[in-house]
Amino acid sequence: MFETVKYLIGSTGASGFGSKSTGEDVTTTAPDLRSITAIITGATSGIGAETARVLAMRGARLVLPARSLKAAEETRARITGEFPGAEIIVLPLDLSSLSSVRCFVFRFRALNLPLNLLINNAGKFSYEHAVSEDGVEMTFATNYLGHFLLTKLLLNKMAETARETGIEGRIVNVSSSIHGWFFGDCLGYLELMTRKKAPYDATRAYALSKLANVLHTKELTQRLEQMDANVTANCVHPGIVRTRLTRDREGLVTDLAFFLASKLLKTIPQAAATTCYVATHPRLEGVSGKYFADCNEVSPSSSASSPHEAARLWRASEAMTTPRPDRTWFGLQPRLSSDKPDDEM
Question: Which stretches does the entry tag as region Disordered (predicted)?
């Protein structure tokens, strides 16, 4: 109850910011971003578009990957209309397709640009069961697996940029508090869901993908340390906000639900604040492997806190993203009786 009251009144935390802070608020003390190149997925609308606008306002060069180039060009036009000096590059990317992710990375590397900041923001909520061209359930493929491969293929470029410029690289994975709604065997459920051996539950599928984002951040942090890379990785919950994520279910019921919850909703500028804070604020230099909400560090769910599960998901993700000529399901196995999470060892 106390935390809810703090949220509603916008009480600030240790960072000096809170639920009512905006992306512009949290970047007022950020260093000059004119030397920063940032990739932001899902920047054609909602939180991603506002994140892009704020970073462009602070001087960052932006690379906007998008499935719809028309929507990305419209985003670029809006931002450059407000900030005529903004440098924005648009490239095609469909995160649900591993071949598209590889093509994007090839095109980006051909530009010979540095890479300081990677914001994995794009999200999809699939109300109907669908499977990607790579044989993976669509919500998981888009929200997590595409970002996993994108990040993996760009790690060396980020480490190289940090080494050459002396500027810390940052990776920001946008998750959601809904990650705490998923319990159980992540990989086992993914296989059942993909093969339609269990009834499709859209909310549980979304929660699984967001849990994977947090686990990805945890294991990624360990691997960055092993690389001795001057790059951090953190995860954020932007808050509850009405964006195009609900575009497949507009109507009276959805409108009524959002009206009743309106006092708990953030505006889009407020929802972009935590991403902007984690991506740019000097206070977070050297901070990695953490989870943030309302611009302050908080604890993720117990399911998201297991190093064992994070490493297990990483190994499975590498298997799923290994090129295969037959494009069939990658044969993930449910957790074995001897393959227990940390709290069961």
Answer: 316-345
